[in-house]
Amino acid sequence: MTGYHLAQLNVGLVRAPTDSPELADFMAGIDPVNAIADAEPGFVWRLQDGDGPGATALRPRGPDLMINMSVWESLEALRDFVYRNGPHLDFMRRRRDWFHRMAEEYLVLWWVPMGHLPDVDEGLSRLDLLRSNGPSPLAFTFRDPYAAPTPAPGRPQQRLLQHR
Amino acid sequence: MNEISVVAVLNDPVRRRLYDYIASQPHGVSRSEAAAAAGIQRTLAAFHLDRLAEAGLVDVTFRRPAGQAGPGAGRPAKLYRRAATEHQVSVPPRDYRAAAELLAEVVDITGAEPELQRSARSRGAAAGRAARWEAPAQPPDDLVAGALTAQGYQPYRDGADIRLRNCPFHVLASRYPPLICGMNLALLEGLLEGAAVTALEATLDPRPGDCCVVVRAADSVSKTN
After folding, report:
1. Could you tell me if B56 and B110 lie in one domain?
2. CA separation, residue B147 to residues B70, B117, B140 (Å)
3. B124 shares its domain with B204
4. What's the CATH number where B50 sits?
């Protein structure tokens, strides 16, 4: 046990209002996909705003930027859900139907102490860090991951080998 | 061992049969099973399997015969599995993967996924039409299995489903999963359309180790919406 969990934030620029026909399939799919996430091994917590499904009513950075954030026991657990779960992978495959392309990074991963639930500001600051500094132990991506902090103080965090 | 030497280890028909059989199985294969599949004696199989293992083409694990443990329980069985390491040989040297990575990155950044999926569906349909033209009377399941095999997917039956043991785009897919899996799905949807196989549909349903796409009866596919 490392004493750390993996947090994730991703953002997306919606192409149309959430009550539009264009976004209908996306909005209808959120609750089922979230239910799958909740049941996945390694799932710890996800952000909810109480107004819409998931966290879709939250707009911390402008009316069109949707966010979601969650915490998992490990990078592998999150990766298995994001990319190896049939319904979620299908969702991801269709993202261009619902979201504009973003030239900047739109997904950030970082380690949090077990039991810590990040808030939106924390998540967004990690995304900003990734965007300005590139991947680092404090803010990274699936493609350039970093291992959880080691207990020994002062030891530099090891870069994980690329996922096969 | 350099790549050419590794691949050259397969340049023997018996060894090739052994390797192909092991690669097609989800479980570790014993010497006896491999020998039976290749139609050869166990000792000859052992010789060839050792050559495959030395070259790193197969991995070796050990399993105790069922129900036995402790000293005197008997030697553990050697089991062989296809190794995960990729081996590439191209003469003259070509590096399409480097180009593929760049192209994938650009499609990802520019959001050209819908165009990629359209192109992939179109290309898949051409392959499907070609397969149908070559074997107009072949039953759909056989036609599809044949086309999938020809493209390297290593299809196998799982109940009523056709699952795919190999992803031809594996490393690229692990770096750009939604992009490449979406492309792959479009390729296979196109293949089925082009071959005029309406009873089957391709859908995303990954399982550890397998390709993310499954081909199953059309009326059993439920959409995720």
Report:
1. no
2. 49, 20, 11
3. yes
4. 1.10.10.10
Domain that holds residue B17: 3-82
A24-36 average pLDDT score:
93
Q: Do B204 and A97 touch (CB under 8 A)?
A: no
| Pair (B72, B136) in one structural domain | no
Q: Which tens digit of pLDDT belongs to each residue from A61-88?
A: 888 899 999 999 999 999 999 999 999 9
Window 159-178 of B: residues touching A by CB (8 A cutoff) are 170-171, 174-175, 177-178
Question: Chain A: residue nearest B186 by CA?
Answer: A93
**Across the interface, do B113 and A103 touch by the CB < 8 Å criterion?**
no
**Which residues from B are below 8 Å from A34, CB to CB?**
none
Q: Is residue B91 part of a domain?
A: no
Q: Do B73 and B116 share a structural domain?
A: no
Q: Note whether ipTM > 0.85 here.
A: no
Q: How far is B71 from chain A (nearest CA, A)?
A: 34
* Residue range A124-152, pLDDT digits in tens: 999 999 999 999 999 999 999 999 998 65
CB contact under 8 A, A85 and B206: yes
Smallest CA–CA distance from A36 into chain B, residue: B224
> Would the pLDDT of A155 be above 60?
no
Last residue in a domain, options B56, B82, B108:
B82
Task: Give DSSP secondary structure letters for A79-122.
Answer: HHHHHH-HHHHHHHHTHHHHB---SS--EEEEEEETT----HHH
Interface test with A, best of B204, B211, B216 (most A CBs within 10 A): B204
Q: Which of B82, B110, B142 is the last residue of a domain?
A: B82
Domains, chain A, with CATH or none: 4-133 (3.30.70.100)
Stated pTM of the model: 0.84
Q: What is the DSSP string of B60-116?
A: EEEEPPTT--STTS-PPEEEEEE--------SS---HHHHHHHHHHHHHHHT-HHHH
A160 close to B (CB below 8 A): no
